[in-house]
Amino acid sequence: MTRSRIFAFSVFATLSFVIGASSHPEAQGPATHPIIKFNVPGAGTGAGQGTIPAGILDSDWIIGNYIDSSGVNHGFLRSPARKITKIDYPGGQATFAEGINSSGAVTGFYLDTSGVGHGFVRSSGGKFTGPLDDPDAGTGSGQGTLSTDINTNGELAGEYLDSNGTYHGFVYSGGKFTNFDAPGAGTGSGQGTLLAGLCGLTDTGVTVGSYIDSSGVYHGFLRYHSGKFAHFVDPSGSVNTLVDGLSSNETVAGTYYDSSGLFHGFLRAVGGKVTPFDVKGAAATAVNNVNPGGVVAGAYYDSDDAFHGYVRTPGGVYTKFSVQGAGNGAGQGTSANYSNSKGWITGNYVDSSGVNHGFVRE
Length: 362
Description:
Layout: H1 8-11, E1 26-28, E2 35-38, E3 50-56, E4 62-67, E5 73-78, E6 84-87, E7 94-100, E8 106-111, E9 117-122, E10 128-132, E11 144-150, E12 156-161, E13 167-173, E14 176-180, E15 192-195, E16 207-212, E17 218-223, E18 240-246, E19 252-257, E20 263-268, E21 274-277, E22 284-290, E23 296-301, E24 307-312, E25 318-321, E26 333-339, E27 345-350, E28 356-361
Parallel strand pairs: 1-25
Antiparallel strand pairs: 2-28, 3-4, 4-5, 5-6, 7-8, 8-9, 9-10, 11-12, 12-13, 13-14, 15-16, 16-17, 18-19, 19-20, 20-21, 22-23, 23-24, 24-25, 26-27, 27-28
């Protein structure tokens, strides 16, 4: 079973790029910003294994996942005091921690012994609620319910895979699933509607994500609480559009591919205007997420296909950085995965052996 939201280091590492990027204001982060590295105890030390933080709250709690030496996925939380708590759903064969709200409640999904996905919520006190299964979800291997977002009201959003392997979106509120499909979404296996993880659901019930049409092409969508879909135009020149999240004022951020296979970031304003962007000097630019204030976190690639972290303010100012110890070969480097309102950034870096490690840039 695969998730639609995958960090830039794994999605784009094998691609090659030959073009430069447009000019934007930028700033190199001051040397006074300490970068704290960390690994979850039990994280694997082989290529493709290790620690992968996903988001950081304003209270400095960090949510993420780690992959052990057997290739099994587990969730984790890191407290402001740097204590790490592992998240494994009781009886689950693999656990994916996908979303967190301001009170510290976590949502995600786990796989059972048959490879079926089931949603869950973990309270800030550590109590699990689950399984949360959409009644229309399939019950075969690679099917099931994938919860990816939780807002301050405790509402959930995500997607489920039906018995045909088609994705459908859902919102879970008051013990009830409300299912939906983006207009134009395909109905075949591997097609359908996918939610943006971590920042795909606002407190007002707006959801965003991507849908895959009958030709296998990705497009963006925005759905209001009423069930109405906004008119969403993909960036000009896009052949695949991946939505990664939205801010509290409904600015959408994502990544799109052009016809040459190169990728770029984009923002969609509330009125529908789409603004493409690239980090200056980058061969390619990927978006990982956007915080409620509209700060984008992501990774950009150099001419050697190594990647580096960046954040972009709503005003278009960029901060670029790399973690010491990150590899500089193809598919190695630093990825900024989220920035909180204080400007603290969390993400992962991949060393020269292909192992993932977590960091927080304070």
